Each structure stands twice: as C-alpha cells, then as structure tokens.
Amino acid sequence: NRRRLPGFPVPMNDLSRHDRVRALQWRGDTLALLDQRKLPREQAWIECVDARAVAQAIRDLVVRGAPAIGIAAAYGVVLALQRTGRADGEGVRADFAALRASRPTAVNLFWALDRMQRAIDTGADAAALDREARSIGAEATWRGLWALARTLET
C-alpha cells in the first residue's frame, strides 16, 4: 500500500519522514503560530487562544502562505466556538467578520471560512469543527505536495 503521487519521489505514506516543519500547531484549545516575520534569525511562536488573536496574527503577517492562512482561519473558528459554545451567537459572527477582514485578498482564507460556515450550518459542534479544521489542514498539505510533484515533472 505504497501509493506514489505522480512524479513525486517518495510514496505518500513515507512523507511523514520528510515533513518536519509545521508553521501551525493545534493544541486543542490554543493555536501556536510560527512567527514568519522573525525567520530565519529566530524561531518564535505566538500562542492564539481566541479567534481575534488568530485574525490579528494573519493581519500582522505572522502567518504567511495561502494554505497556512486558510488553516489558521479554520482553527480560529474552532476557538470562537469553544469560547462561546454557540455557533449562532453574535460573538461567533463577530469573530468570523474579524477573520474575514484579516486578509481581504486571501482566497484560501475565504475558502476555509466558507467551509467552516457550511459545517456550522449543518449543526456542527466544536468537536466536529475541530475535525473539519484538521481536514482542511490535511487537504491543503496534500494540494501543496501535488503542486510540488507537478513542478518536479516539468
């Protein structure tokens, strides 16, 4: 069961050996973000405990790269729901607005937020949103690997 991506030099199930750097770390109730502004001289992490902190980190360019921005926004939604306990509350709507305004031109940001909103609209609770955010992260990672494989083919 060692499938390969077309043109990618290692089987997909071996990629974890090569995937050692993550700019985002989800800790269940906190999102830790590698501060991209300080690289390469320093490795510093910013801990976000609510959606407003995630929005501020996106706005301040702590998070860079389209996939990472979308993933961070998805976890921001999880933090919003954890804080309020209600998906239909004014606080969650305000947090969505703050996340959307954090980088108005980021396509992945809106894609992830729209996807999280659809999950909420179908009755997802915080645990289901956590799984959806993880899924968004996994899909973004695989899309990036696919794009890399396509680049290696040419």
What would you say this structure looks like, in words?
By secondary structure, the protein is mostly helical. It has five helices and three strands. The protein has helices at 51-59, 66-84, 90-102, 107-121, 126-153, and strands spanning 24-26, 31-34, 45-48. It has a three-stranded antiparallel β-sheet, with helices on one face. A hairpin with a 4-residue loop joins strand 1 and strand 2. Helix 1 (51-59) runs parallel beside helix 3, helix 2 (66-84) packs antiparallel against helix 3 and helix 2 packs antiparallel against helix 5. The longest helix is centred in the C-terminal third of the chain and has 28 residues, at 126-153. It is globular, with a radius of gyration of 16 Å. The chain starts with 23 loop residues before the first strand and ends with a helix. 32% of the residues are buried.
The mean pLDDT is 84
Content-based structural category: mainly alpha
Strand content: 5-15%
What is the 3D form?
globular
Q: Strand-and-helix sequence, N→C?
A: EEEHHHHH
Q: Give the total of beta strands.
A: 3
Q: What's the main sheet like? A: 3 strands, antiparallel
Approximate helicity band: 40-55%
Tally of DSSP helical segments? 5
Q: Strand arrangement, largest sheet?
A: 1-2-3
Note poorly predicted spans: none
Q: Give the distance, in angstroms, between the N- and C-terminal Cα atoms.
A: 27 Å
The radius of gyration over CA amounts to: 16 Å
